[in-house]
């Protein structure tokens, strides 16, 4: 393969990021929703274990994550690790469409807004990506919170005194009967406080860390230089790891409070004893 052909197949540095105007919207939504669903399948058991640990009482309080995982497998088998999963997947598609649309449109607008200020590339990326993450997460909470409330109740049904349900619709019906529509939005304020800032922190960290890494690798000075596909993936993956670590450290305490509020207030309204 000659140099010209090779160069045509490898994107130049300024093409490693694609803005909203150049995105294939169909692929964005279809592939984005598909990838998110795949990640959800892989990580959902972690959410179940985390939620069980957050609402644990009595002897269960002394269990670590591994012990909680083993207990779920012993009592409910593999299906126990996926309680509430269908509800999450059904709600994931509209949630991701709203999220991705708000994310990309806000990022594009924020980049244009920041241009007159002549900010450094990492700062400009942190500003645009952070604002985009904040906007996207806030908009998607309208669908995400009811799905979250329902799925969490399914995750802990029959556990430590919690009621059992016939499925997501049964949960929604009982929540509305006990507390009205607002019951499905229990913890909405805390969800916004948790996920909107965490989304902002994640995307800001992700965008700025990539530029810092590219600069350290010497690519930022010459934007026409063509980095290899492997290097692009490596930089993006590194940025994701950094962003995830920073975000987890900041948001875990608030997430615990939110989960307890969503579950315990409902139990208080329905008279379920958790002691």
From TrEMBL:
Q: Which residues form a coiled coil?
A: none
The way it spans or sits in the membrane comes to: Multi-pass membrane protein
The principal localisation class reads membrane
Where in the cell is the protein located?
Membrane
Task: Report keywords, A-Z.
Answer: Membrane, Repeat, Transmembrane, Transmembrane helix, Transport
List, in alphabetical order, the GO biological process terms annotated in this UniProt record.
transmembrane transport
| Annotated InterPro entries | MCP (IPR002067), MCP_dom_sf (IPR023395), MCP_transmembrane (IPR018108)
Pfam families, per this entry? Mito_carr
GO CC terms: membrane
The Solcar repeat units are at 25-109, 124-212, 231-275
Q: Which family does it belong to?
A: Belongs to the mitochondrial carrier (TC 2.A.29) family.
Query: What is the name attached to this protein's record?
Result: Solute carrier family 25 member 44
Q: Which organism is it from?
A: Panicum hallii var. hallii
Taxonomic lineage: Eukaryota, Viridiplantae, Streptophyta, Embryophyta, Tracheophyta
């Amino acid at each position: 393969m000659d140099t010209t052909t090779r160069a045509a197949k490898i994107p130049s540095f300024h093409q490693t990021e694609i803005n909203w105007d150049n995105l294939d919207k169909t692929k964005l939504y279809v592939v984005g929703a598909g990838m998110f669903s795949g990640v959800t399948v892989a990580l959902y058991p972690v959410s179940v274990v985390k939620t069980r640990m957050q609402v644990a009482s009595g002897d269960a309080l002394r269990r670590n994550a591994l012990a909680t995982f083993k207990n779920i497998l012993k009592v409910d088998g593999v299906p126990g690790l996926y309680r509430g999963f269908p509800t999450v997947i059904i709600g994931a598609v509209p949630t991701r469409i709203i999220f991705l649309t708000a994310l990309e449109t806000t990022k594009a607008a924020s980049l244009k807004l920041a241009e007159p200020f002549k900010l450094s590339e990492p700062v400009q990326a942190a500003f645009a990506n952070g604002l985009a993450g904040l906007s996207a997460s806030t908009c998607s909470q309208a669908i995400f919170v009811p799905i979250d409330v329902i799925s969490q109740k399914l995750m802990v049904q029959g556990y430590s005194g919690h009621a059992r349900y016939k499925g997501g619709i049964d949960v929604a019906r009982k929540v509305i009967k006990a507390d009205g529509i607002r019951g499905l939005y229990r913890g909405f304020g805390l969800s916004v406080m948790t996920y909107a800032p965490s989304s902002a922190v994640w995307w800001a960290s992700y965008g700025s860390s990539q530029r810092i890494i590219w600069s350290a690798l010497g690519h930022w000075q010459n934007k026409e230089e063509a980095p290899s596909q492997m290097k692009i993936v490596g930089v993006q993956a590194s940025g994701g790891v950094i962003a995830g670590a920073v975000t987890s450290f900041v948001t875990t305490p608030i997430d615990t409070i939110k989960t307890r509020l969503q579950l315990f207030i409902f139990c208080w309204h329905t008279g379920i004893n958790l002691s």
